[in-house]
Task: inverse folding
């Protein structure tokens, strides 16, 4: 039977989600636990990878198992064996047609930027923006250029992808004193796409690029024109949507 | 001249404040930086130690230096060389009579307990309380027994201290959804005192001890009767007060 799991993790101490040899990854930690529960090697299929340092509040993966267990019991069985920086929030038994990656309809990422005084206790959980002179209206205007269907080739690390057209449904800014949360919902995001976009919007707020420049860069379809990447520690995979 | 520094740090990756051989400590990291700035070994004097895993939002220390520097310049000189889990919030040039430890009038500690769902991103910053059945009114009533001047010998790890009489001025409970912040202000706290007190109050809320038991334990003046210690990751040295 197929289990769908919603998982949160603190990305700080992981070399990203996907297995990479002997490096510590989220996938490896979860598969080690499932090997014990299922008594055989069990591969998990996530909605997509996350990079080193990137956090998840609602990543989703699925796996198949011959073991029949109630959802809550499976959740407890996994959680009791996981390291403390990964936590299964929910387990659901799903139809075999469900696929954590191919069934995705939307994804929501949050990016947290703090413009206030540095707090060492939050260093891994937000981007402390080092420049105090920034026009945040411009940052917002820059972001709105990207809402809709576009070819985002200029804004991904992976220049070899054949299809780089994606749709961003919404980009919202939410303020909580000095902390800005940028909420981005789209049908899919490529490698480093959110971090490159955020970095370029911030550059725009510092007048390093104009709004017109950003539109041109979007048209260039070449990463060379968007060289910045915002730090991984501000990025959260907030939610994965399915029908 | 004497510099007074207010410092915050994330205690997670430190073996406490005080130098301990080759272990990573807050004192060692700061003194390494002062060696560069002052061009000679410079000892720092904190208001008191904090244990491994304990955080600080307003720890205070002082040091002496022949180097004359504006407060803000000294702050920047130190911060630019510190690791990212320590941050100097304020530097003040003070009179030679000021001593970060001996001039303390009050100290305020906060202890954070979360009774809600576990969040792996906050694992180092609060105590996730594992028991759901607890009478929180009783926990509060238990805490209030300790306000005032008492001999706290039963509630310290250091049983060899000659004077174990301390005054707690106030103990306040502040709720933010599932998160309880206990704010304790007193004229001084001994080794593990806050963590032992909090652990015993929680035990009281689970009916492991009655309010009368707690009063007796206070009277016993022997740590043997208060065997629990709450985890270090929920504890914050919030503020040190001087006249």
Result:
């Amino acid at each position: 039977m197929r289990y769908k799991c919603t998982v949160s993790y603190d990305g700080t101490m992981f070399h990203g989600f996907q297995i990479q040899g002997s490096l510590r990854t989220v996938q490896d930690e979860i598969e080690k636990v499932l090997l014990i529960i299922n008594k055989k090697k069990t591969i998990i299929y996530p909605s997509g990878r996350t990079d080193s340092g990137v956090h998840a509040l609602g990543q989703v993966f699925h796996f198949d198992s011959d073991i029949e267990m109630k959802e809550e019991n499976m959740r407890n069985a996994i959680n009791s064996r996981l390291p403390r920086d990964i936590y299964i929030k929910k387990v659901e038994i799903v139809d075999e047609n469900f696929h954590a990656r191919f069934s995705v309809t939307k994804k929501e990422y949050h990016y947290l930027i703090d413009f206030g005084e540095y707090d060492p206790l939050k260093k891994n959980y937000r981007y402390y923006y080092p420049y105090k002179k920034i026009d945040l209206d411009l940052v917002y205007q820059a972001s709105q250029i990207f809402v809709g269907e576009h070819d985002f080739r200029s804004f991904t690390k992976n220049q070899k992808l054949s299809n780089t057209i994606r749709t961003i449904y919404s980009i919202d800014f939410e303020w909580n004193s000095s902390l800005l949360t940028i909420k981005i919902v789209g049908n899919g995001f490529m490698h480093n796409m959110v971090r490159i976009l955020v970095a370029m919007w911030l550059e725009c707020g510092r007048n390093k690029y104009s709004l017109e420049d950003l539109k041109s860069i979007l048209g260039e379809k070449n990463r060379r024109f968007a060289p910045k990447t915002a730090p991984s520690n501000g990025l959260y995979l907030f939610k994965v949507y399915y029908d």
Observations:
- The mean pLDDT of chain A is 97.
